[in-house]
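Students often ask why we bother encoding 3D structure as a string. The short answer is that it lets us treat folding as translation between two languages. Here is a chain of 443 residues written in the first language.
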Amino acid sequence: MARIDVLMPQMGESIAEGTVSKWLKKMGDQVKRDEPLFEISTDKVDAEIPAPAAGVLAEIRVQEGQTVPVQTLVAVIETEKGAVASPPATASAPPAPKPEPPKHVPPPPPSPAAAPVVDRPRPPATAAPRQGGDGAETAEERLRKKSTPLVRKIAAEHQVDISTIPGTGFAGRVTKQDILGFIDRGAVAPRPAAAAPVGPITHPVVEPWPGDRVEPFSKIRKITADHMIMSRRVSAHVTSFFEVDYTQIAELRRRHKQAYAERGANLTYLTFIAKTCAETLRQHPVVNAAVSGDNIIYRRDINIGIAVALDWGLIVPVIKHADELALMGMARAISDLGERARAKKLSPDEIQRGTFTITNPGVFGSYAGAPIINQPQVAILGVGAIEKRPKVVTLPDGSDGLAVRTVGMLSMSYDHRVVDGADADRFLADVKAMLQSFPEGAV
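And here it is in the second language, the structure alphabet:
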């Protein structure tokens, strides 16, 4: 009887842990190789994890809602068809002889002297585990100082010393929630080591009434909430609004939509908007920038994030080098990323390194909105509902008249620390002009 270990995968270099959000199979169920086995949530992406082999799901070691380090033993598959499911083994009796993966869900962060070496996620070679001696830095201390690139970036932006923050992650590792909570309570400079422990961002507690249904935040909802709070606190938000006449684009869509569909692409208004923004950003580098401490980073690449609303939250897959795509390529990229986001098939790399974000609440009927900036970017474009409305137009004889036109609002929130109102309005004016005179040859 062969036993196959199922481990918590590492969904990217900066990912240290994952949460089992849902089991798609029960103990005793027959599974096929590459069949979805369970769903995980990380601080980057939600994903379905396939079975590494065919067989029977004999053990489930990590229950729904539990967060464990990468390479933790999550389940065991027995490859003989007649295998009988056994109850989950205790953490003290791991059956597999693998020395590196952790074999249990770790308890609350132990003291450096008590943390077992075998339970650490794989650290860089320069931080090999070693016992702390007199004056020697322990592996746990090095691990928490390392943290993730995102945590180190937030710490650098706020001039916070990570080693002074009590960590709630594995082996005392400082998580994103830890540092955001630390900053949210007023930390803007390094704190002394004796500072009182500070937890993650908390929300006011409201008493439920009889008949109410109470559900905890999903991981993706909690991450989104923390990210939005952090963004509003970090950036000086200002929003500009422009009305755009899409009548010419509506005609182009009418003439070319079928041809695009026959080639597997959906020619939406968003396709035209994303293509126009990608080309216009090259002429307005301040809108395609980021803030790093007291420096402005003007991004060379133009990577456009497209916000996708899911039943369980919001995710922003990124179209890399969007300015290099033709309209057909843009249509296919938007459709592909959206479909795979809804199917939980995105990789962590596909939701990172965005330089500008577009959100499209107009598909739900919203006239206009003031979206929150997707950090560390400095601008986000909101697309309002596109519909036929009466407009005043100038007739050939110079007189004014009413006409039915296809129009919609574009709103852009921007970080006033970097982007002035004139910068934002010039960018939006160029986007509007190109959309209203989109060249036939580009379709």
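Translate back mentally: The chain is about 25% helix and 25% strand. Keep this in mind for the problem set.
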